[in-house]
């Protein structure tokens, strides 16, 4: 807890002023470092769940959670920053009242949060979270509701990461892979998921033409992985052409070169060099 002057009301006022100053300094530091605009913005729950695809939820009851796992809000994203520091002075009266109560040792009711992956989103108790941060606490009591999603929430740090997650979810709806095959399809560029979807669908169409029968999406996805993706990636690994890319990115790169070869009928040193650098 920050230094105590012996006057709880004055200390609570200083707590708020320190939190506001920290929020302004954080914005200034982000501007000086030219960081993305969403670095200090808390994550909006609805956008996160929409990107990942909600599949269910269940109540877990009262738990003790880490404050640094609380990264977003159900509806108060403009009142606090990512560290739950107040973004304006209009929250001051209620904020200081809560800080004063905590400094006096009065009981504070648990907050309410939704859990997505290892992240928590506040539905009730934003001011309590903000005060707890300001007073240097590490944990807080919360009633937790866990939200299950279609794809993993791992890797989400900022709002911009939701674009990749959303496109990955759409890709897996079009190409319903599972297990190791699902895990292998990792791309850093959101648009690349659309390109990969169309690549798989085109491959499946040619397969159905060859076999003169209909295959559903799951069948096409499974056969694409075992008959096309794995063999090609295996050759790329042996040739040292994967590099620092993911396997899916390496596959797309060689797939693009194969398409160019089909159109140009060339397979010379220039094409090989282009393949190595992509």
Summarize the structure in words:
This protein is an alpha/beta fold. 52% of the residues lie in helices and 15% in strands. A 6-stranded mixed sheet has the order 1-3-5-4-6-2, sandwiched between helices. It is elongated and about 80 Å long. The termini are far apart. This is Chromosome partitioning protein ParB. InterPro entries: ParB/Sulfiredoxin_sf. It comes from Kibdelosporangium banguiense.
Task: Name its key features.
10 helices, Chromosome partitioning protein ParB, elongated, six-stranded mixed β-sheet, 278 residues, Conserved hypothetical protein from pyrococcus furiosus pfu- 392566-001, ParB domain, ParB/Sulfiredoxin_sf, alpha/beta
Gist?
The chain has 10 helices and 6 strands; from the N terminus they run αβαββαββαβαααααα. It has 278 residues and is an alpha/beta fold. It has 2 domains: 142 residues, Conserved hypothetical protein from pyrococcus furiosus pfu- 392566-001, ParB domain (Alpha-Beta Complex); 102 residues, no CATH class.
Estimated share of beta-strand residues? 15-25%
Q: Quickly give the CATH architecture of the largest domain.
A: Alpha-Beta Complex
Q: Which class do the helix and strand fractions yield?
A: alpha/beta
Tell me the distance between the termini: 52 Å
Quickly count the helices: 10
Number of strands: 6
Order of helices and strands: HEHEEHEEHEHHHHHH
Radius of gyration: 25 Å
Average pLDDT, rounded to a whole number, is 87
Number of domains: 2
Choose one word for the global shape: elongated
- Strand line-up of the largest beta sheet: 1-3-5-4-6-2
Within CATH, the superfamily of the largest domain carries the name Conserved hypothetical protein from pyrococcus furiosus pfu- 392566-001, ParB domain
- Specify the biggest β-sheet: 6 strands, mixed
CATH top level class name of the largest domain: Alpha Beta
